[in-house]
Amino acid sequence: MDHAGINHEFLDGVIAGTEVDAYYHLGVTSADELVQGLRGLRAVILGGSGPRMDDFARLWSAEHDDAPIVAFPKEERFVIRYTAGVLFASHGMGMPSASIALQELMRLAYFVTDGDPDALDRIFWARVGTSGGVGLPAGTVVVSTEGVMADLEPYRLLDGAGGYHWFDGHFPLEVVDAILAANSACGFPMASGRTVAANDFFVEQFRLDGAIRLATVDDKMSWLHRIHAAGVRNIEMEGAMLAAYLNTWGFSRFAMVCTTLLDRLDGDQVTSTPEQLHEYGERAGRAIFAYLRTIL
Ligand code: R2B
Ligand code: URA
Q1: Ligand 1 test: best mutation among 155, 236, 242, 261, most atoms within 8 Å of CB?
Q2: Which ligand 1 atom sits closest to the C-alpha of 92?
Q3: Distance (Å, rounded) from C-alpha 44 to C-alpha 83?
Q4: Whose CA is nearest to atom 7 of ligand 1?
Q5: 155: which of 11, 177, 220, 244 fits an S-S bond (Cβ 3.0–4.6 Å)?
């Protein structure tokens, strides 16, 4: 792991005990008993919805002799559960929300591994989510190879020196292949490809059914065809940031697995029934569990 991007200035003081880290949005601090109990952390599974993360934790616990499930006390922002080495956390919708969950969880991971690079790098990170497909039928599970923004450029943020810091949005391809291999008999369609992370469900995904509409039908179709030709297979709202931050710390194992809810080449509205949506949400979870079983 190349840890050039780790904020040692702050985080090493927390390990040395000269500082307590308040993971404000998670509702715990590095001095809490609950956090001390996470020293066996081996994987962090993120997803947009709290109830889905709670379900995943129950399933993982049931597979591991009903291992106890530790619930983080604060649930106003994110729902977090820990069981049998795996932390399941919701991240809300969009990169601003998910980046808060991810940065606080990365700090927490650093603390519970005492900043040991090998222990840190043994942690697997994944986002399990939903997305709009591009040229794929609804219900396809897409494993992302790279997260880009709606302009097909990487995630970037102001760097404090008057410019932008450009991040690396690639996902490790060995993990993409291993997830596909672990699911070779899964019984539902799977694909891999680049993923657009948009800053809005409507405008930046070129939907024509938002309250605000900036694009014409032609703009929308030419954007969809352009991103498809560039290897994009699905559209969601967090992946470019997720890969960017995890690459900044040099993690070697992380992934994003999202089910498509519709094919954007056919329309904008999500019209699947609640039963279909539930089944689609489960598929991405099943795909990541199949991989988790091979590594934990
Ligand atoms: C996928 O689905 C959510 C929007 O409906 C968003 O969080 C995402 O990335
Ligand atoms: N999530 C998104 O961000 N876009 C979609 O089209 C579906 C789910």
Answers
A1: 236
A2: 7
A3: 11
A4: 93
A5: 244
**Is residue 136 packed enough to be buried (19+ CB in 10 Å), middle (13-18) or exposed (0-12)?**
buried
Whole-angstrom distance, CA of residue 13 vs CA of residue 7:
10
Domains, the chain, with CATH or none: 1-122 (3.40.50.1580), 129-296 (3.40.50.1580)
Its pTM surpasses 0.90: yes
Q: Ligand 2 pocket test: which of 128, 131, 195, 233 has the largest number of ligand atoms within 8 Å of its C-beta?
A: 131
Pair of tokens at residue 77: 């922002």
Q: Which residues contact 16 (CB under 8 A, 6 or more apart)?
A: none
- Calpha distance 38→77 (Å, rounded): 20
CB atoms within 10 A of CB 43: 22
What's the token pair of residue 228?
């498809």
* Rounded CA separation 240/147 (Å): 4
Distance (Å) from CA 29 to ligand 2 centroid: 33
- Span 222-253, pLDDT tens digits: 999 999 999 999 999 999 999 999 999 999 99
When pLDDT is averaged across residues 45-63 and rounded to a whole number, the result is: 97
Q: Give the closest residue (by CA) to ligand 2 atom 8.
A: 131
Instruction: Retrieve residue 168's tokens.
Output: 């690396």
pLDDT digits (tens, 9 = 90+) for 66-98: 999 999 999 999 999 999 999 999 999 999 999
